[in-house]
Amino acid sequence: MSSESTQSKACCDTPAVVSKGYKPKGDYITADGLKTYATGSKDAKRGILVVYDIFGYFDQTLQGADILAYGDKEQQYQVFMPDFFEGEPADISWYPPQNKEHEQKLGEFFSSKAAPPKTLPRIPKIVEELSKSKGIESWGIIGYCWGGKIVNLSSQQGTSFKVAAACHPAMVDANDAPGVTIPYVMLPSKDEPRDDVEKWEKGLKVPHLVEWYPTQVHGWMAARADLEDAEVKKEYERGYQTVLSFFHKHLSTNSKL
């Protein structure tokens, strides 16, 4: 299923995952007019843009951003997570939908605030602004669930990114794959349709890794991660190690914007 090794001794120093009451290491800035979580060494020349899931800022997602920033003392990143939903994310109680009302609200959210054409044009502007203000010379992008779709569409011809990651991605479409132009790592959960992911992978023409997490639910690396569960915590940590290893290999400061 993969064309990459997941092993990397560089990721052995990933910070211990905090199960409850996480205190983020970063702070908030403004990028393209959006409140943006910013974390990592300000001396780092490599940046990662995080596209959260539809539930917005959750401790589990903020902790993930901090892991990406500080997970390897020798290879650090500046990491940025814009609030694309501007303080009005989806309610986590809607998913998985328990009734028709939840289904309706989710559908409305995906067709309005989460419609990709609303988010996609902002990403190059954010990258350009942060490159200038923060001294970033090369960029990676990671997205969760809905954010995985945004990453797929942001990895096409003309992208400013050098490497991409999608964790438990939503709306996986084989038609997106041939246009992907940068190395790509995808971490599906047990809830992603296997046929969709396999068809997508077959269409890729770039170095890539698809690594399944068959014990985990959709959302385990972001808002829906129950980090008090030992198995979830272990796989959450392994997922971030895998992403970091892939980014270390493919994101070089020699590849400037």
From TrEMBL:
GO terms for molecular function: hydrolase activity. Gene3D superfamilies: alpha/beta hydrolase. It comes from the Eukaryota. Residues 35-250 form the Dienelactone hydrolase domain. Keywords: Hydrolase. PANTHER family: DIENELACTONE HYDROLASE DOMAIN-CONTAINING PROTEIN-RELATED (PTHR47668:SF1), DIENELACTONE HYDROLASE FAMILY PROTEIN (AFU_ORTHOLOGUE AFUA_6G01940) (PTHR47668). This is Dienelactone hydrolase family protein.
